[in-house]
Specification:
Elements (H helix, E strand, L loop, with lengths): L1 E5 L14 E12 L6 E5 L3 E5 L8 E6 L2 E2 L4 E7 L7 E7 L10 E9 L2 E5 L7 E9 L3 E2 L3 E5 L4 E8 L17 E7 L1
Parallel strand pairs: 6-13
Antiparallel strand pairs: 1-2, 2-3, 2-4, 5-7, 7-10, 8-9, 8-11, 9-10, 11-12, 11-13, 14-15
C-alpha cells in the first residue's frame, strides 16, 4: 500500500492534483514473519520531498520591426514569454566588428504585452549586424536574433551662400560672401 500526502502547514490541494509544497511518501507492505501463517503490515520510513514552482519559460524573439532601423529610432520586438512589470532589456552584441570579449550593449525595453516590446535604439550605435537578445530580470535571456542597424542618413541643407574674395589685399573682414552649411539627420 502506498501513502502519499501533503505535510501539515502546506497549502491545500485540489483532488488529484499536486501543487508546490512539501509532501511525504510512505510504503506499507504485507509480509510473512518467519514460518508462521500470520501476515503483518510492515511500514517503511517516511520520505519527505518538495515540489517546487517550475521556472518561467525564457523569452523568445520571433520578429523585430522594421526589418532594419536607424540609430535613435524605435523598434518593436515581437515574441513570447515577455513579463509585464519585470525589468526588461534588449541586449545586443556586435557581429561585424571586433569587440572585447563579453562586450554587449543594452537598452531598457517597454513591455507592451506578453508578446510585444518597444525599444529606442541609442543614437551612438555603429551600423552593422547585431545578435539581439531579450533579458528579463529573474526570468532569463532569449536566444539571439540577428538584426541590422543602418548607417545614419544625413541631408545637407544650405542656409546661406556667400563667397570670400581673398585675392584682394585690402580684404579685412567678412563683408564679403561666406558659405554656411548645416546638416540634419534623417
Amino acid at each position: 500500500m502506498l501513502h502519499f500526502g501533503r505535510v501539515r502547514g502546506s497549502p491545500p490541494q485540489d483532488e488529484g492534483k499536486a501543487f508546490t509544497g512539501q509532501y511525504y511518501l510512505r510504503v506499507e507492505s504485507l509480509t510473512k514473519i518467519g514460518d508462521e501463517e500470520k501476515e503483518t503490515w510492515k511500514r517503511s520510513n517516511i520520505l519527505d520531498f518538495f515540489i517546487e514552482t517550475p521556472p518561467p519559460p525564457k523569452p523568445v524573439i520571433t520578429q523585430i520591426s522594421p526589418s532594419d532601423q536607424y540609430p535613435g529610432r524605435t523598434v518593436i520586438v515581437q515574441g513570447n514569454n515577455f513579463v509585464p512589470g519585470k525589468e526588461t532589456d534588449l541586449v545586443w552584441e556586435p557581429l561585424d566588428f571586433p569587440t572585447p570579449t563579453g562586450m554587449a550593449l543594452a537598452a531598457r525595453a517597454t513591455v507592451r504585452s506578453t508578446t510585444e516590446l518597444s525599444v529606442n535604439l541609442p543614437l551612438l550605435v555603429l551600423p552593422g549586424r547585431y545578435a539581439m537578445r531579450v533579458h528579463i530580470a529573474g526570468v532569463g535571456i532569449s536566444d539571439s536574433f540577428i538584426y541590422a542597424i543602418k548607417a545614419p542618413k544625413y541631408r545637407v541643407v544650405f542656409t546661406k551662400l556667400k563667397c570670400i574674395d581673398e585675392t584682394n589685399p585690402e580684404w579685412v573682414g567678412s563683408d564679403e560672401i561666406v558659405t554656411v552649411l548645416g546638416c540634419r539627420c534623417r
